Amino acid sequence: MKWNLNYIQKNAKPSFNFEENIEYDKALIEKLNRVDDILDIKVKGNLKYIDSISQCLIKYTVSGVMKVKCAITNEELDYKFSDEEEVSFTFDSNEDDDEIIFAKGNVVDLAPIVWQLIVVNIPLKVVKEGAKLENREGKNWKIGDFEVKKEENDKPIDPRLESLKKYFDKQ
After folding, report:
1. What is the 3-state secondary structure (H, E, C) of 6-26?
2. Is 16 helix (H, G, I), strand (E, B) or coil?
3. Tell me, what DSSP letter sits at residue 31?
4. Cα dist. 48→20, 69, 132 in Å?
5. CA 50: distance to chain centroid?
6. Side-chain-facing half-sphere of 129: CA atoms under 13 Å
7. If you placed Cys at 95, which of 24, 79, 90, 116 could pair as Cys (CB 3.0 to 4.6 Å)?
8. 126 closest CA partner among 159, 62, 96, 81
9. Buried b (16+ CB within 10 A) or exposed e, 87-115
10. What is the pLDDT of residues 114-167, one digit of tens each?
11. How far apart are CA 129 and CA 17, in angstroms?
């Protein structure tokens, strides 16, 4: 997903639409610890070139399917994602705005920006519909109900601290 300045100036009068299916290297996807694979990545959008300020405004949508594990059953699930973004590129090296990306070598490369958007859309936890935890306890472990239970201690209170207990009971 790269366009050089000559191509943009020639085809973006006033703008042009694009639609591409992209794939990222498996080694890059393997670095993501909560995702097994990313499939069917589709980028669709519009690029508008503003000649007077040498900038490109790109509005695009990224959609696809992530292969993730269910947080309860550890089964692989398909998680569909879709997100919209707007980004600006400039060909002017004197631009000081942090929101605008400088197009190095007069080439607009949208692939790293799309990758950032995909990473932002990785879910923290996915649970399969209807999934239930079968085992609630095992050897040396038990899943509780997260209820705070106040247990009274049957041990007698140290006589030196008895007066302190009376003090706090009054308040």
Report:
1. HHHHHHCCCEEEEEEEECCCH
2. strand
3. T
4. 17, 39, 49
5. 31
6. 2
7. 90
8. 81
9. bbbbbeeebeeeebbebeeeebebeebbb
10. 999 999 999 998 888 877 766 667 777 776 666 655 555 556 777 787 777 777
11. 37
